[in-house]
Amino acid sequence: MANAWRRPVIRIAGRALLVLLLLATAATAAAFVAVNRGGRAQTEAHLGSRPRLGDPDTFPIPKVNPPDVVGWPPGKAPTAPRGFSVTRFEGGLEHPRWLYQLPNGDVLVAESATLPKNPDSPVMGFLNWLRRNDGSTTGQSANRITLLRDTDGDGVADFRGTFLDNLHQPFGMALLKPAPPHAVEPAAPDGTGVMFYVAGTDGVWRFPHTLGETRITAEGQKILDLPAGGYNNHWTRNLLAAPDGSKLYVTVGSASNAGEHGLGVEHRRAAVLEVNPDGSGERLLASGLRNPNGLAVEPATGTLWAVVNERDALGDDTSPDYLTRVRDGDFYGWPWSYWGTKVDDRVRPARPDLVAKALRPDYSLGAHTAPLGLAFATSFPEPYRGGAFIGEHGSWNRGEPVGYKVVHVPFADGMPSGKPRDFLTGFRPGSGDSTTYGRPVGVIADKAGGLLVADDAGNTVWRVAPTR
C-alpha cells in the first residue's frame, strides 16, 4: 500500500522539479537577452593608438545582441562619402566572404558560411538560436569560389561562373609562381607554372592556373593541413603571398574565446603561420593573435599588417579589436592578456612570464567591431589617398551595436596617423533598431581604381569609386 502512493508523489515531485528547471532556464534566457539592449555608444576615445579601455565586466551572463538581417530593400545601397559612387557589382551570391583580383581584372569571390557550433550542446544550441538571423551563420555553406568579370568596364559584373567548387569553407586566396625548389609538376596548362592557392578551414590547396580561364579543371594538391577540429570557434583562414613570392602567410584563429577549452586545442592557432609555396618549412611568424583575418602589406614600407578580433565577454568597451603590424616573433598576449599586458583573470594557469612579453597593438578599432577585411589603397582622392580600408563585420554582443561599416584609417610615414573615418555606411538603419541590411567582410582595391566590398549577409559585392 505504501508503494502505491509513493509512485504518484514521485511523479508529481519529478514534474515539479522539471517545471522549476524550465522556469530557471527561461529566467536565465530572459536575463541573457535582457542585458543585451541599451548601453553606451562607442566614442573616439576608444579608438586609435592610445584608446580608453573599459573596466572588465564581471557580470556572469554575457551580452548577446545579434543583428536581424533582412537583406537590402529594392533600390537601397550603402552610403559612401560625397564624391564617390556605389554600385552593385554583383548580387544574388551565397555568403560572399572574401575577394581576390586576378592580373587580368577578373574578381574571385569566396562563398562560404559560418556553420552552427556544437548544436548538441544546450548552451551553444541556445546561442545558435539567438544568432539564427545574423546573416552569417547557416546550416550549410556554398563552399565555392565564383568568378566575376566586368567586360565593359561599367563597374558591374556581366559574367559570372563557378571557378572552383567542392571546397571546405574557402576563404583566403593567392596567386603566385613558386620558384624551385618549391615548384610543382605538372605546371599550369599554359606552361607558366602559375599556381592558384586557396585556404579552407582545414587546409591550404593549390591548383595549376591559366590566366583568363573561367574555371579550374586541373586536379589540386593539398599542401598544408590546418587545425579545424573540436569547437573550431574561428574557422576563417586567410592567405597572403609575400611580395617576392617566396613565402605564404596563413592566418589561423583560436578555437575558443579565451582558452576555455584548454590550451591543447590551440596548437598552431591564434597565429600567423609562414610556409614555403609547397607547404614545407612551416614556422610561427607571430602569435597571441586571437582571430587574425585581413592581411595586407603597407605599400610605402613593405610592412605586413593585420586586423584582429579580440576576446568577448569582458564588457562593451573591452577588449579592443585592432590593426597592428605583424613582425617575426611578435606575441600579442592571447589568451593571458589583451592590449599588451592587461591580464585576463579568467585564464588559468596564469602566465606572468608571457604577459610581460606581450606587445601592445598599434591601433584600436574599438571592442566588438569585428574587423575582417583589410586593404591599402593609393588611387583615391584626399583625404582617402593611402591608408587602410577595413571591413567591420559588426558586433553581436554589445549593448549598443558597433561596426557594420567600412572605415578608413589614415597613414603617414608607414603608421596610422589619426582617428578612423567612416567610408561606407548604411548597413544598419540606425541606433535602437536591430534591422540589418548587410555586413561588410572582405575589401580589395581593384585595378580600375575602385574599392570592392564583400557583403556576406546582403549576398552582394559592392563597388565604390570616385566620381571625379
From TrEMBL:
Q: Which domain of life is it from?
A: Bacteria
- Keyword Plastid found: no
InterPro entries, per the entry: 6-blade_b-propeller_TolB-like, Beta-prop_PDH, Quinoprot_gluc/sorb_DH_b-prop
Q: Which residues form the Pyrroloquinoline quinone-dependent pyranose dehydrogenase beta-propeller domain?
A: 192-314, 358-464
Record has Signal as a keyword: yes
Q: Which UniProt keywords apply?
A: Signal
Extract the PANTHER family matched here: BLR6566 PROTEIN, HEDGEHOG-INTERACTING PROTEIN
Give the protein's recorded name: Sorbosone dehydrogenase family protein
Q: Which organism is it from?
A: Nonomuraea zeae
